[in-house]
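Table S2 (text version). Query chain:
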Amino acid sequence: MKQFDAVKITKDNPIEGIYKGQIGSILEVYDDNHFEVEISDSNGITIFLGALSRDFLEVVV
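Corresponding structure-token output:
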């Protein structure tokens, strides 16, 4: 995974407000397993901005 890849959330994390199937973008790569991800709604409003581990993410091809 690299900066600006589109990613899909692979499992729910209701505490963070993210759910399986949501699409986001990697904004920053911290290391091989941790990434800063932004998820926006259909109007472009950010609904999540935070660090996620690789096990929550799948690159969208």
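Notes on Table S2: Residues 11 and 20 are 4 Å apart (CA to CA). The chain has a mean pLDDT of 96.
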